[in-house]
Amino acid sequence: VFQKTINDVTYLGEIYYGGGTSTAYVLPTALSAYPSAANITATSRIDFTTHEMMGFNASVAFEGISFRAGYFKTLVDVPSFTLVDEEGEFGSVGLTIDKYNIVIYSEYIVRDNSANLMAAFPDATAYYVTAGYRIGDFLPYVTYASVGEGKDASIYTPKQTSAAIGFRMEVADAAALKFEAARKTPESYGGDAGGLYDAAITGDTMLYTVALDVLF
């Protein structure tokens, strides 16, 4: 990790190398794409490992404005599908503005994986934009987000847009209370059974959340 401030501009750079184990949850419709997974039934937990992961994160921040970028590339093994050394890539760029009571968060991401990983990790692009205005300890905000097809089209890519309105209130030096109402509009569900839903959503859905964030 490298960090340095020059003329009130802070530069941060990070590089990393490694690997690990994790889990994906895949619907039976997606599993049918793999003859080697014929013995798997129902919504399934699929274990996989990553290795030779290499990546970086970088940011430049000044006067309440921050730009950031990140990228990593890894090899993936999925024993259940007899897949070895499949390539996966992920990149993102983001912008944060917190100045003159104006708050803007925005990020754009791209995922590009080999064809054999498409059922669990299809190529995809996604972005979100949040805009708010501070009024003392209160921050009302709106958010728009979208996820859709990436470089290579896949029937397993989830396609969805969402719009949300929310309210954040600072209740202590290290605690905030948040309320949000979001409308999710799915176009295509894809094959991923993870997240908040364990079955395909066929129409607009409202999601209401209350959260207490505490730093300690």
Description of the structure:
This protein has one helix at residues 28-31, and strands at residues 2-6, 9-26, 44-62, 65-78, 83-99, 102-113, 124-133, 138-149, 159-172, 175-188, 205-214. With 216 residues, it is mostly beta strands. Strand 3 (44-62) and strand 4 form a beta hairpin. It is globular and about 55 Å long. The model has no long low-confidence stretch (mean pLDDT 86).
Question: Which terms summarize this structure?
Answer:
216 residues; mainly beta; eleven-stranded antiparallel β-sheet; 2% helix
Brief overview, please?
The chain is an all-beta fold. The protein has one helix spanning 28-31, and strands at 2-6, 9-26, 44-62, 65-78, 83-99, 102-113, 124-133, 138-149, 159-172, 175-188, 205-214.
Beta-strand residue percentage? over 45%
Q: Give the ordered list of helices and strands.
A: EEHEEEEEEEEE
Tell me the number of helical segments per DSSP (H or I, 4 or more residues long): 1
Straight-line N-to-C gap: 24 Å
Widest β-sheet, arrangement of strands:
1-2-3-4-5-6-7-8-9-10-11
Low-confidence stretches: none
Rg of Cα set: 20 Å
What helical percentage do the residues reach?
A: under 10%
Indicate the overall shape.
Answer: globular
Residue-averaged pLDDT: 86
Summarize the main sheet: 11 strands, antiparallel
Oligomer: single chain
Please identify the structural class as seen in this structure: mainly beta
What is the count of β-strands? 11
